[in-house]
Each structure stands twice: as structure tokens, then as C-alpha cells.
Design a protein that fits this description.
81 residues, four-stranded antiparallel sheet, binds zinc ion, globular
Length: 81
């Protein structure tokens, strides 16, 4: 039996579209290549993908990185039998 565990996190992120702090919807914790953890989710208002990097606290988003080319997440789909 396989169970897909998806951790939902309620976190605040900065929406570059709304230009405001929003509660990240459907936030899931992801570990980046450098070992840092981040929360990836969506803006509850406009649906824009939001990304919050964990670890550093109290970071003021003076200039939100718009991420011109989003790196493809290394997703490894479970092998189908
Ligand atoms: Zn938004």
C-alpha cells in the first residue's frame, strides 16, 4: 500500500502579482538542491506560485525575486508496476 504524504503548511509569502503578503495556499515543503527547505504554494487570491525559503527569519521582501526561469523541480515519479 502506498500513501502519498503531502505536508500542508500554512505560511506567509510574498505575492509578486498582488505585491502583498499573502497566506500561501496549498503550501508544500520542498527541499532544494542546496539542502535548504522551502515552502511552495499558491497565492490564494490570484493563484500565482509563491515560494518561501525557510531557515532565515524576518526577511523583508524589498525586492522579490521574480524567478525569470523557474528551475524544474527534480520530481521522481514512483515506478509503475
Ligand atoms: Zn497574488
Amino acid at each position: 500500500m502506498k500513501r502519498t504524504t503531502v505536508n500542508i503548511f500554512m505560511a506567509e509569502g510574498y505575492c509578486v502579482k498582488c505585491k502583498a503578503k499573502k497566506e500561501i495556499a496549498d503550501g508544500v515543503e520542498e527541499t532544494m538542491k542546496n539542502g535548504r527547505k522551502a515552502i511552495k504554494g499558491k497565492c490564494p487570491t490570484c493563484g500565482t506560485v509563491m515560494f518561501k525559503i525557510l531557515g532565515k527569519s524576518s526577511s523583508t521582501p524589498t525586492s522579490a525575486p521574480a524567478a525569470p526561469t523557474a528551475p524544474a523541480a527534480p520530481t521522481t515519479p514512483p515506478p509503475q508496476v
